[in-house]
Design brief:
It is built from twelve helices and three strands. By secondary structure, it is mainly alpha-helical. It folds into two domains: 61 residues; 249 residues, MetI-like fold, CATH 1.10.3720. A three-stranded antiparallel beta sheet has the order 2-1-3.
């Protein structure tokens, strides 16, 4: 039987039957083109941002002496651009914030995933996710008006009205819902067969959670910590309100007094119409600090991504 006779017989499929409707194919191509254009546009915008930051950062470095980058403090209008001052405040605030957010967020995630009843989980988890939507300026005001006088100054009487510790606690509260929500999703996605196997050999609930469930979900847990850390590293309003390092600050590692972070330095310098007057390189210092912050965030995320990939292969 030849092809012409077989194609005319009812019930016999040919190659043209698998091509599909041409109108639907055109729609698929159009949608694919739109998605491709959106992704290319996003990459292009990101590349332009990085290029503009790098260009202005190089301009800043050409206008100053390198010795100005290790001065006694950060006072850009006076020509003092001490980078260690910003790095010390940034690392202290971020580290203390993660010291608060990771234990509380991970503990909340373990409770919701392994111990809470379905009814409790359906109520508490949405409440945690709502907390993640609180504006950072509200938490900054809360840290300044409540945490500092009601907690920090009661425990440490010599603490100032503005302090890096107050900003760190505010950012820690901001990061707790991120750690809890993402970690809970990772723990909840662990197959029940692993839990049942652990119970089958006589392991307790605590042992199953700490030795089986958490190691199996470690990639998601690390991912949640990286997301929260990046949020803490780039947070501006909480630090600007609670740390009190507006305008400039001398180098300090005292978390009980005022300080300055990279984001707060950019915000205070760029606020107002005449905020960048003074030193000729003051305006370009904004781009220099922004470029440093971008590099730091990129390196942290790159290292974390490689770690997560390696651990994910293991489990």
């Amino acid at each position: 039987m030849d092809d012409s006779s077989s194609s005319s017989m009812p019930g016999v499929l040919t190659v043209t039957d698998f091509i599909g409707d041409r109108r639907r194919l055109r729609q698929d191509k159009t949608v694919r083109g739109l998605f491709l254009g959106a992704s290319v546009l996003s990459l292009g915008i990101s590349a332009l941002i990085v290029i503009s930051l790098a260009g202005e950062a190089l301009t800043f470095l050409r206008q100053i002496e390198l010795s100005q980058l290790t001065d006694i403090g950060w006072f850009p209008r006076r020509g003092m651009f001490d980078v260690p001052t910003l790095l010390a405040g940034t690392f202290l605030v971020t580290g203390l914030a993660m010291f608060v957010a990771i234990p509380l967020g991970l503990g909340s995630a373990v409770y919701l995933s392994e111990y809470a009843s379905p009814r409790v989980r359906t109520v508490v988890k949405p409440a945690l996710e709502v907390l993640a939507g609180i504006p950072s300026v509200v938490l900054g005001f809360f840290a300044f008006t409540v945490l500092t006088p009601g907690l920090i100054q009661r425990i440490w009487s010599d603490a100032g009205a503005f302090s890096l510790l107050s900003a760190a606690l505010g950012i820690g509260l901001l990061a707790i819902p991120l750690v809890a929500s993402v970690s809970e999703d990772a723990l909840h996605s662990v197959p029940d067969s692993l839990r049942e196997a652990s119970y089958g050999i006589g392991a307790s609930k605590f042992t199953t959670v700490t030795r089986v469930v958490i190691p199996a979900a470690v990639s998601g847990i690390v991912g949640s910590c990286i997301v929260a850390g990046s949020r803490a590293l780039g947070e501006t309003m909480v630090v600007a309100l609670a740390a009190g390092g507006s305008g400039g600050h001398l180098f300090t590692t005292d978390v009980f007094n005022s300080g300055l972070t990279m984001t707060a330095a950019m915000a205070s310098l760029a606020t107002g119409t005449d905020a960048v007057k003074g030193s000729a390189a003051a305006f370009q210092s904004l781009f220099f600090v922004g470029f440093l912050l971008f590099v730091m965030t990129f390196v942290v995320n790159l290292i974390a991504d490689r770690f997560v990939r390696r651990v994910r292969q293991r489990y």
